[in-house]
Amino acid sequence: MRYLSRVLFLVLVTLGFSTVADAQEKEGPGRFWIGLQAGSGGVGAELAATLGYGFEIRAGYAYLPPVSLSRTVNVPEHPGAVGTARGKDVPVDAKATANISDLELLLDYYPIQDNGFHLTAGLLYGPRDIVRIKNMTPLPDDYNIVGLDVDGYTVRAVSNNINGYIAVNSLRPYFGLGYSLPVGADHRFRFAVDLGAMYWGKPGLYAPGEPLIGDLVDVRVSSSSLNGHDNGLISKAEKVVLYPLLGVHFYYNLF
């Protein structure tokens, strides 16, 4: 499914730039740009082309270098079933690492002629697992055997380690605004700033779960599955349905 989505995205990009070429034949010469971008979405490259009637289309890719955050959490000595004795709490060091990258297809609208202010809407596509989580110190041995009960699935540790991740939607609508400013007497260069947000849905914590019969599946881990030992972190993460994007762009006019 992930590879199919990428293929569909590339088809949309191809169709978009084909539309640009058709519009230029009817309305006169347009402008093609190649650019670099940097911001809260990462660093990357873009292609842009004017469509006429105040519209411009952009396609690109941005990658956020991995950023990690470490924290010590307390887990029960024995996972057991909810309501059973779990023993004393054991401190475990865990590390969360961001995994954010996006393909983008955006449409800019300039409502005022000869003014750089623009409104932007589009789609971004990226990996579901935006944060990867792993324990840095071993979990108690019972997590290898008994495991955690998550809605009828058993999440076990392998060699005292559980790898989980925070997931969102792969396809993410984007809305924003920005300002573009030509640079140089011949306007061969252009500088732009954009501010907006992508909607990636309700984040969830996932881990491999073992059913009674069948293969492992990724199951959504709730606070109740952990008997409240997440200290409210899961419920807080579920509220972050928008990711703010502030970016700067520098373009060069190809022709």
If you had to describe this structure to a student in words, what would you say it looks like?
It is built from three helices and 16 strands. Helices cover 14% and strands 51% of the residues. It is elongated, with a radius of gyration of 23 Å. It starts with a helix and ends with a strand. It has a single domain (2-253), classed as Porin (Beta Barrel), CATH 2.40.160. The longest helix is centred in the N-terminal third of the chain and has 26 residues, at 2-27. The strands form three sheets. Strands 1-2-3-6-7-12-13-16 form an eight-stranded antiparallel barrel.
Q: Secondary structure elements and their pairing?
A:
Layout: H1 2-27, E1 32-39, E2 42-52, E3 55-63, E4 68-76, E5 89-98, E6 101-109, E7 117-125, E8 129-135, H2 142-145, E9 148-150, E10 153-155, E11 163-167, E12 171-183, E13 189-199, E14 204-209, E15 217-221, H3 233-237, E16 242-253
Antiparallel strand pairs: 1-2, 1-16, 2-3, 3-6, 4-5, 5-8, 6-7, 7-12, 8-11, 9-10, 11-14, 12-13, 13-16, 14-15
Strand-residue fraction?
A: over 45%
CATH architecture heading? Beta Barrel
What's the tally of helices? 3
Rg result: 23 Å
Q: SSE string, helix = H, strand = E?
A: HEEEEEEEEHEEEEEEEHE
User: Roughly what is the average pLDDT, rounded to an integer?
Assistant: 86
Q: Kindly provide the name of the CATH class.
A: Mainly Beta
- Return the CATH topology: Porin
Structural class: mainly beta
How is the biggest beta sheet arranged?
8 strands, antiparallel, barrel
First-last Cα distance? 37 Å
Q: Count of DSSP E strands? A: 16
Parts with pLDDT < 50 across at least 5 consecutive residues: 1-29
